[in-house]
Amino acid sequence: MSARLLPVLPGVMQIRGGIVNCYLIADADGLVLIDAGMRADMRRILQAIDASGRALRDLRLILITHADGDHVGCAAQLLAAARAVGGAARLCVPAGEAASLAAGKSSRELRAHGLLKVALQ
Length: 121
Known about the structure:
- It is a single chain.
- By secondary structure, the chain is of the alpha/beta class.
- It is built from 5 helices and 6 strands.
- Strands 1-2-3-4-5-6 form a 6-stranded mixed β-sheet, covered by helices on one side.
- The two termini are 29 Å apart.
């Protein structure tokens, strides 16, 4: 899916086009990405950075709100890609989520309810 940017506030944009909410914050120091979507969202996030008028090397921080796969999916790839083009991107996760992220696990148990419950039947 291609990325669409929805302005939320001056300098804050929601990255549209996927099932996960990701946000870009742009200021004079560069870009901050809030949540990195799923692994399949790499292209969409790169398109969003381009659509913002900035470059991947401007990505300074990837802020992860929690260690679920739909929020950290392409964080490592984005971090590596930004650094490969001369950026100084860093990854920031809440202390309570760091152990889950390091272990490659979700910080929350997936429970069957709602639509998921129907899908598992």
